[in-house]
Design brief:
Blueprint (H helix, E strand, L loop, with lengths): L10 H11 L2 H19 L6 H26 L7 H19 L3 H25 L4 H20 L9 H8 L1 E3 L2 E4 H19 L1 H11 L1 H6 L4 H27 L12 H11 L11 H20 L5 H24 L6
Antiparallel strand pairs: 1-2
Helix pairs in contact: 2-13, 3-8, 3-11, 3-12, 3-13, 4-5, 4-6, 4-11, 5-6, 5-11, 7-11, 8-9, 9-11, 12-13, 12-14
Length: 337
């Protein structure tokens, strides 16, 4: 009787493992770890606990904005106004907290309502008047940015109450040492995933992204769905603004726009695997993309790369992500992009 060889692995199982290793999510995890190790070797301070914590919290803010941007890009749209929405929410909540003692729960409700209204304006213009999303949100980018200066009058937030600081930097309990913002991001990530994967609204978003005309003829409420996508995006950007002011303790009239959150969120979504052509997206990939981009941008600072290259780097990553998505789509023509 011949000696038995290695256990037989079904071809399908081999393909599954290969697909897993070649997935965008696995590549992002590996790339994030690699960049972290390289930056840590070149500058040991990069691996300091305080810096790792900063990168994680910064990726939470970006991740929240990008999750909303994911919904919009899946519909073949784009939202450039997320940056001033984030900034306006940060400034309004921060100033009301310091000037009038607005409680944290009131700030949460306020920013969500503010984001919903601003998102509704974007969604209504895109869906009802059929103005291209890039034109609408470019206009509201300037409009909402002007509202920050109008409301603040040049004042800035320099500190926040303890309850706000705890929300941005604290943990739920000593025995569960996970920062609250991370828990918020995880809850929102699961909610967006459930929306896309299991609810009719999510299926409508995917249908619109694949073929708006066909979706309309199939009975999909296109206008309502598009408007709702921009409302959710506005709410998540505003929530990100509240978390930003809570964990940094500061906000100015250029918060959001000065940090180029609109470009960073787009880069994050595309890096995470969402197709710029619409109809396909990865919620988990978006969150991993926000972590990867946060690590990259922080590494550039620690490696003393001139700031002028930061925006160039973001643009380069967008081009690489779009090209990669296009090549994957060409290689697998049967998949919806």
């Amino acid at each position: 009787m011949p000696l038995s060889g290695p256990p037989h692995v079904p071809a399908r199982a081999g393909r599954d493992w290969r697909a897993l290793l070649e997935s965008r999510e696995a590549i992002l995890i590996a790339a994030t770890v690699l960049v972290t190790l390289i930056a840590g070797l070149l500058n040991h301070d990069f691996l300091a606990v305080s810096n790792l914590r900063f990168m994680v919290l910064n990726s939470v803010v970006l991740g929240l904005v990008a999750l909303g941007q994911t919904l919009v890009i899946i519909t073949k749209g784009i939202d450039l106004s997320v940056a001033p929405v984030l900034g306006l929410a940060a400034v309004v909540s921060g100033l009301l907290a310091t000037r009038q003692g607005l409680p944290l729960w009131g700030a949460v409700l306020l920013v969500l309502a503010l984001g919903a209204v601003l998102g509704l304006i974007n969604g209504a213009l895109v869906s009802s008047i059929s103005i291209p999303p890039i034109i609408v949100t470019l206009g509201t980018y300037s409009l909402y940015g002007g509202l920050i200066f109008l409301y603040s009058g040049g004042d800035q937030v320099n500190s926040v109450p303890d309850s706000y600081a705890h929300f941005g930097n604290g943990v739920l309990a000593p025995w569960f040492p996970v920062p609250i913002p991370i828990l918020v991001l995880l809850v929102i990530m699961l909610a967006v995933w459930f929306l896309l994967a299991h609810l009719p609204f999510g299926r409508n978003i995917l249908a619109i992204g694949n073929n708006p005309a066909a979706a309309h003829h199939a009975g999909v409420p296109v206008k309502h769905t598009l408007t709702s996508a921009y409302i959710i995006t506005g709410m998540l950007a505003a929530l990100a603004g509240l978390i930003y002011v809570c964990y940094t303790g500061s906000a100015t009239a250029t918060t959001g726009t000065g940090d180029h959150f609109e470009l960073q969120s787009i880069a994050t979504v595309l890096i995470g695997g969402t197709a710029v052509a619409g109809g396909r997206g990865s919620v988990f990939g978006t969150v991993l993309g926000s972590t990867f981009l946060s690590v990259i941008l922080t590494a550039l600072v620690f490696l003393h790369v001139p700031a002028i290259w930061y925006s160039a780097g973001e643009g380069l990553m967008i081009l690489i992500a779009v090209t990669s998505n296009s090549l994957r789509r060409t290689a697998t023509p049967g998949r919806s992009a």
